[in-house]
């Protein structure tokens, strides 16, 4: 029995319209529409053609109904500049990652979500409140992926075909998810993680709009304050700092040179003229779109590494997990921050940098 929502999800995951899939699979547009609405069911031979056209295993289409991640709770950056098919594909990839999370959650005891819902405070205050709750004080933030996971956020990587999307976050019921782009610099990846944390904290309750330029500005300000606490920046950086001092200082907080420059201007350490001059010189040196001589070691998931190490010890391989989810192994691999089998079976990446509050344990 084919599940209509799975045809729709697979089509969106591949970034196809009904017309695209009709042409690719050789199935009429009306028939496809009927399949997706459940008015009629495709024959087995048609299911095979759809599976081939969508590059999904046939068994995927006969699984239980799938609820997509809630569209209204996602704050897309540059929504108007990004094609809808790209946003739909990224959301569908997130939905499949949520399926993987549910599979893991049935077998492992994961850290409980520990995110306050702060709809009212300004971003600076909200960042300070979260830092206090998480015991960070004014110290530089550790590995951001590990930190989010330790406080119950489920973090996955976006697949390569969703790289027009910077990152996104969404609440699914009481579970927070963050999806990160893996092709950005390490420093900008950390900022993205903090930015999405800001959305979850400030826009999850519905007290403030979660979309639009205002919401994006609030999330940026939250990320800036969370990664670069005012007291820490004021204590380390001189007023009117030269570009070379900015480049040295950014190593303290593991942020981009542009992010630190913006923060220093925001805190009054750079005048308007100094800010514009510093940005112009950084752009001339290539810091507008890249981070020359930046951090090399990408922040990846601690939880997923532990999960697949635990599964490996039980003789369960990632391909077995993909089979149970009804998807290709490559589909699962794209959610895992590029974790290789060497990483899964070897030493835990980033061990000791930040430990989860609760140990991950196999529950069955």
From TrEMBL:
Q: Which domain of life is it from?
A: Bacteria
Q: Which GO terms describe its molecular function?
A: DNA binding
Q: Which residues form the signal peptide?
A: none
Q: Which CDD domains match?
A: HTH_XRE
Q: Which InterPro entries does its entry note?
A: Cro/C1-type_HTH (IPR001387), IrrE_HExxH (IPR010359), Lambda_DNA-bd_dom_sf (IPR010982), Rad_response_metalloprotease (IPR052345)
Which SMART domains does its entry note?
HTH_XRE
Q: Name one Pfam family in it.
A: Peptidase_M78
Q: Which residues form the HTH cro/C1-type domain?
A: 7-61
In the record, the note on similarity to other proteins reads: Belongs to the short-chain fatty acyl-CoA assimilation regulator (ScfR) family.
Tell me what this protein is called: HTH cro/C1-type domain-containing protein
Q: Which organism is it from?
A: Streptomyces chrestomyceticus JCM 4735
């Amino acid at each position: 029995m084919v599940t209509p929502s799975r045809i729709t999800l697979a089509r969106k995951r591949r970034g196809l319209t009904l017309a695209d899939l009709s042409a690719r699979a050789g199935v009429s547009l009306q028939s496809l529409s009927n399949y997706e609405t459940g008015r009629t069911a495709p024959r087995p031979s048609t299911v095979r053609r759809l599976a081939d056209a969508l590059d999904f295993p046939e068994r995927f289409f006969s699984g239980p109904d799938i609820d997509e991640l809630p569209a209204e709770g996602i704050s897309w950056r540059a929504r108007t500049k990004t094609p809808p098919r790209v946003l739909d594909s990224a959301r569908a990839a997130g939905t499949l990652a949520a399926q993987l999370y549910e599979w893991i959650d049935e077998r492992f005891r994961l850290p409980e979500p520990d995110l306050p819902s702060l709809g009212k405070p300004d971003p600076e205050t909200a960042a300070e409140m979260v830092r206090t709750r998480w015991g960070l004080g004014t110290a530089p933030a550790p590995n951001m992926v590990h930190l989010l996971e330790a406080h119950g956020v489920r973090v996955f990587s976006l697949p390569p075909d969703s790289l027009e999307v910077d990152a996104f976050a969404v609440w699914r019921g009481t579970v927070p998810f963050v999806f990160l782009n893996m092709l950005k610099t390490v420093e900008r990846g950390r900022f993205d993680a903090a930015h999405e944390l800001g959305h979850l904290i400030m826009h999850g309750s519905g007290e403030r709009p979660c979309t639009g330029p205002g919401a994006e500005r609030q999330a940026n300000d939250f990320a800036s304050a969370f990664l670069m606490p005012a007291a820490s920046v004021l204590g380390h950086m001189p007023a009117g700092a030269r570009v070379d001092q900015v480049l040295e200082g950014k190593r303290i907080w593991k942020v981009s040179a542009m992010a630190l420059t913006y923060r220093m201007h925001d805190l009054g350490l750079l005048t308007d003229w100094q800010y514009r001059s510093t940005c112009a010189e950084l752009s001339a040196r290539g810091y507008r779109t890249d981070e020359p001589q930046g951090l090399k070691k990408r922040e990846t998931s601690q939880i997923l590494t532990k999960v697949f190490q635990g599964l490996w010890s039980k003789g369960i391989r990632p391909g077995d997990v993909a089979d149970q989810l009804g998807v290709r192994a490559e589909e699962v691999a794209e959610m895992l921050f590029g974790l290789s089998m060497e990483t899964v079976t070897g030493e835990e990446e980033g061990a000791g940098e930040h430990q989860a509050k609760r140990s991950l344990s196999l529950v069955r």
